[in-house]
Every structure is written in structure tokens, then in C-alpha cells.
């Protein structure tokens, strides 16, 4: 004989948060180690070469750390004023950094030697990068210029002055040494071609630009400023492909991760968001203790460093799974490697332990429905586990026993049932079942509700008011749905130009409340 199967009370539980592989992947980052700097962390950059040292630019120095031990590897302190934007060359041997001294300095990382000093700017240099050919440096300055430098001769080759405000963001093309991208506080992002010595095109971001980023192909780039991140197609003259704003404060930095398939964005709202490059959908969010100014991630995603406004650098490392030792491998071979095995196997039937049923399930098993209902309508149960009460009510409806159970109960149970209905009939998890319970209750007590006492009559009136309130809410939501559809259709027909703006998804509309469809209780 099969064992009695208890009712499932988890059906009415709250839904768990939907997870995806990226959530699991990014949660595997270990407990962060915090490094203390003397000022806000302006920039973080990882060396492309293993072991992927990372440079932290803060105050009057650039410090290079070991990502495994999180200890200081090199200290580059040849600055008299604040340093900005220290970044590695593709071979990891050289590092360039700007600063308040209006200069760009070039260092040998291993020897800590100052190799070159590029002079010519009249304002602070906030960003500088090596081009893909490793023989030139591009700098972006508060003097509103973008300058192209030659490393061997230590001379300025070309300078662009196209911005009308500070230039605080920049990037170099990953496929061409001649293509440069700059972002300024004049809201514009400009692309330059060194060969023609002119601006190829410019786009208006709509807010002061804090960061720009090329995707690996070089044909698409991103700009961040204000609370928005915008995606542009460089091959189509700066056509806007998409825009998304998942931050509620200024976005300060952008980085690529997972070999170019993920985008990381940091913001003053203390969050780092992870996006899919293909869909630009947010996949995961990392939280930090203070406003995020900079971030960097190693090429293999093993180490994530995030710099904050209070001078803290959070360094999280993905811990590798421990490999079994030689002795453990030998044990496994000894255990399973023997070829002397008896082919006969004894069949053993284990006596399964009988599962102890909850008390309400025992009552249901014995068809003692009144006792089961009385138990789940207790104050502790209806306050702490309303899903259990609804599950038992649903089971009684399925057994066609609720009508007789309610009719045969004392006034105390009737009062408890009415109180439970008033409290939970508006909960979307329980509405469908509780409306059926309310209809059955009306069938039983519609004509003789006064037999249960004056308190029951008052609770019955409160239930009627509650149902009227839910109906009014449903009607208001339907009216709101109509207004939203009208506004969205008007914007689609006249105001959105698909060639110059990002596509807007208008397919998501409010759906009619399921509880609104199922209200069949008539209240006079």
C-alpha cells in the first residue's frame, strides 16, 4: 500500500529570485581584500600579461600590486601633484600616467625608471593610453585637447582641439593605431583619424562624458555620462544603437570582461553592473560600501579591483578549485582499479523509514476535516504561515468537503475564517483560492449570517468593503493601462526616429490582474 502523500504548501510560497549562469559566475568571486590609498582612486588598470599585476592611480603616485598576494609590487612616485590615469602597454613592461603637472610620464615598471616626459599640455592630463602599435601615446587633457605623442622621439606629432570643455574620457582603437575616441564635459564624443588629421564624426551623449570604451571589433563604442550608457556604431557615422540606464547616479567607469563578452559599469550609486554585449541586458549587480570611481578586471576574470571615493580598493579574486594531491589520486586508483571483482551482487532491500506526517495531514488522512481546518486557522498559523492555511482550504475544496466543514463549525472558526479572508484575499498568491472559499462561505451563510453573532456580521461587512476596494483597484489599473498604451502609441507614431535614437521596447504593457478576472462575489 502506498504511503499517504502530504499536501504541498510550497505552491503558495513567495517566488525565489530568478538566477542565471552569470549570477553564479560572479558570486564565485572570493571575499574581497581592501587596500587603503591616500585619496580617491582615480584609475585602475590591469597588465595584459600574466600574472596580471594591476596599477592603482591615487593621490601623487601609481602603485602596482600583485593580484595573488595583494601586496605592493612597485611604487611609482615621481609626481609632485596628483597623478591620473596610469595604464599599461600591451606587453606589460611600460606604464604611462598623466597628472596635475600638465605632463605625461612614461615608466619602466620593473625598474621603476622614468623613461619619458611628454610636455605640451596646459591643463591636467586625466587619461592617457598606448596605441595598438606600442610606439605612440595619446593623452586627453583639461586644456580641451587630445594629443598624439611619439615615444622614441619624445615629441608631439598631432594635437586636436575640438572640444569646448574638459576632456576627461578617451580610448584608442583596438584594431587601428590611427583611430582615437574622446569624451568631454561638453557632452560630445568625438572620433579622430590621425591620417586625415581631422574629426571623423561627433555624437552628443546628452550629459558630461565620464568614460568611453571600444568593443573588441573596433566598430562599436560605448559612452557613459550621467545615469546613461549609450552604444554607438562607428561604421555608420555614429548611429545610436541602444541606450540603457540601470544606475541612478553618475556612471564613472566602463570596462570589458569575459574576453569582450561582458561589460562592467561602475557608478556613484555604489554598484557595479554586468551587461551582456549581445543584448545589453543587465545580468548581475555587485554592491560596494562607497561610491565607485574606477574599476579594473584581469584578462582571465580571476581578479576584480574596484576603487572608491574614500580611497579604498576592493580586490576580489576567483579562487581556483583545489586539485587532489598525488596521495589522494593513488587512493582512488587503489580503491577502484582492482580487476578482481566478484560478479555476483547481493540485492538488499532497505526498509524505508516511515515519514512522520504533520498533524493537519493526519487529520486529512483520517477525514477529520473540521479538526484540520481548526488547526490551520489558529492565530500563529494564519500570521506566520498563511500559505499553509490556503493549502488546506484548497485541499478541502478539491475533496468537495469545505461546504460541510464550514456549515458544521462553531462561530469561533467562522470568525477566524472571515478574519483570514479580509487579511489575505488581496494577496496575489492566494486570491484565486480565497475567492472560491468566499463563494462557498456565501452559499452556507448568506441567509443566516446573524446566527453567528453580531461580530460575524461586522466582519462580513468588512469583507464586502475589502472586495469592493480590490475591484476599484483593478478598474484603476485597467484605466492606467489604457493611458499608458495611448501615450506609447502616440510616441511610436510621431516622436521616435529610429535612425538616430535607440529602439524603445513598447511591447511590455500592464496585464489585467488575474484577481480582477475572478471576482464573482456579489456584494450588496
TrEMBL record:
It comes from Menopon gallinae (poultry shaft louse). Residues 344-486 form the U3 small nucleolar RNA-associated protein 15 C-terminal domain. PROSITE patterns: WD_REPEATS_2, WD_REPEATS_REGION. The keyword Repeat applies. It comes from the Eukaryota. One of its GO terms (cellular component) is nucleolus. One of its GO terms (biological process) is rRNA processing. InterPro entries: U3_snoRNA-assocProt_15_C, WD40/YVTN_repeat-like_dom_sf, WD40_repeat_dom_sf, WD40_rpt. Ribosome biogenesis factor. Involved in nucleolar processing of pre-18S ribosomal RNA. Required for optimal pre-ribosomal RNA transcription by RNA polymerase I. Part of the small subunit (SSU) processome, first precursor of the small eukaryotic ribosomal subunit. During the assembly of the SSU processome in the nucleolus, many ribosome biogenesis factors, an RNA chaperone and ribosomal proteins associate with the nascent pre-rRNA and work in concert to generate RNA folding, modifications, rearrangements and cleavage as well as targeted degradation of pre-ribosomal RNA by the RNA exosome. Keywords: Nucleus, Repeat, rRNA processing, WD repeat. This is U3 small nucleolar RNA-associated protein 15 homolog. Signal peptide: none annotated. The keyword Ribosomal protein does not apply. SUPFAM superfamilies: WD40 repeat-like (SSF50978). WD repeats lie at residues 118-159, 160-202, 244-285. It is found in: Nucleus, Nucleolus. CDD domains: WD40.
Amino acid at each position: 500500500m502506498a504511503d499517504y502523500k502530504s499536501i504541498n504548501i510550497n505552491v503558495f510560497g513567495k517566488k525565489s529570485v530568478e538566477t542565471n549562469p552569470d549570477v553564479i559566475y560572479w558570486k564565485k568571486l572570493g571575499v574581497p581584500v581592501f587596500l587603503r590609498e591616500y585619496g580617491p582612486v582615480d584609475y585602475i588598470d590591469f597588465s595584459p600579461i600574466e600574472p596580471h599585476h594591476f596599477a592603482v592611480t591615487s593621490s601623487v603616485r601609481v602603485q602596482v600590486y600583485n593580484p595573488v598576494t595583494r601586496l605592493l609590487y612597485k611604487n611609482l612616485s615621481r609626481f609632485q601633484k596628483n597623478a591620473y590615469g596610469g595604464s599599461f602597454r600591451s606587453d606589460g613592461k611600460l606604464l604611462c600616467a598623466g597628472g596635475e603637472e600638465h605632463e605625461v610620464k612614461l615608466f619602466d615598471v620593473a625598474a621603476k625608471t622614468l623613461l619619458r616626459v611628454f610636455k605640451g599640455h596646459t591643463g591636467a592630463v586625466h587619461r592617457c593610453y598606448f596605441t595598438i602599435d606600442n610606439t605612440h601615446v595619446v593623452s586627453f587633457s583639461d586644456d580641451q585637447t587630445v594629443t598624439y605623442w611619439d615615444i622614441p622621439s619624445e615629441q608631439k606629432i598631432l594635437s586636436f582641439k575640438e572640444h569646448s570643455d574638459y576632456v576627461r574620457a578617451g580610448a584608442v582603437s583596438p584594431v587601428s593605431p590611427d583611430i582615437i575616441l574622446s569624451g568631454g564635459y561638453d557632452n560630445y564624443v568625438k572620433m579622430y583619424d590621425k591620417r586625415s588629421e581631422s574629426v571623423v564624426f561627433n555624437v552628443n551623449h546628452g550629459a558630461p562624458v565620464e568614460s568611453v570604451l571600444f568593443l573588441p571589433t573596433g566598430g562599436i563604442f560605448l559612452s557613459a555620462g550621467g545615469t546613461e550608457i549609450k552604444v554607438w556604431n562607428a561604421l555608420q557615422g555614429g548611429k545610436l544603437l541602444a541606450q540603457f540606464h540601470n544606475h541612478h547616479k553618475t556612471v564613472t567607469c566602463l570596462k570589458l570582461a569575459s574576453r569582450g563578452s561582458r561589460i562592467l559599469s561602475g557608478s556613484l550609486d555604489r554598484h557595479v553592473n554586468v551587461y551582456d554585449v549581445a543584448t545589453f541586458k543587465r545580468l548581475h549587480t555587485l554592491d560596494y560600501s562607497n561610491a565607485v570611481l574606477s574599476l579594473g578586471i584581469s584578462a582571465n576574470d580571476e581578479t576584480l579591483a574596484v576603487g572608491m571615493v574614500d580611497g579604498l580598493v576592493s580586490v576580489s579574486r576567483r579562487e581556483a578549485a583545489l586539485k587532489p594531491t598525488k596521495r589522494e589520486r593513488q587512493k582512488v586508483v587503489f580503491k577502484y582499479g582492482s580487476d578482481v571483482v566478484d560478479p555476483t551482487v547481493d540485492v538488499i532491500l532497505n526498509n524505508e523509514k516511515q515519514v512522520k506526517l504533520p498533524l493537519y495531514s493526519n487529520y486529512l488522512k483520517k477525514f477529520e476535516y473540521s479538526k484540520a481546518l481548526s488547526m490551520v486557522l489558529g492565530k500563529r498559523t494564519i500570521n506566520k504561515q498563511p500559505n499553509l492555511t490556503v493549502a488546506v482550504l484548497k485541499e478541502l475544496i478539491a475533496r468537495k468537503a469545505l461546504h460541510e466543514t464550514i456549515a458544521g463549525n462553531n462561530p469561533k472558526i467562522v470568525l477566524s475564517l472571515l478574519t483570514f479572508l479580509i487579511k489575505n484575499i488581496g494577496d496575489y498568491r492566494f486570491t484565486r483560492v480565497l475567492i472560491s472559499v468566499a463563494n462557498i462561505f456565501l452559499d452556507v451563510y448568506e441567509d443566516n449570517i446573524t446566527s453567528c453573532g453580531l461580530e460575524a456580521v461586522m466582519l462580513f461587512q468588512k469583507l464586502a468593503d475589502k472586495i469592493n476596494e480590490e475591484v476599484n483597484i483593478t478598474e484603476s489599473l485597467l484605466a492606467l493601462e489604457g493611458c499608458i498604451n495611448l501615450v506609447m502609441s502616440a510616441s511610436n507614431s510621431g516622436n521616435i526616429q529610429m535612425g538616430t535614437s535607440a529602439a524603445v521596447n513598447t511591447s511590455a504593457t500592464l496585464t489585467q490582474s488575474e484577481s480582477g478576472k475572478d471576482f464573482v462575489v456579489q456584494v450588496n
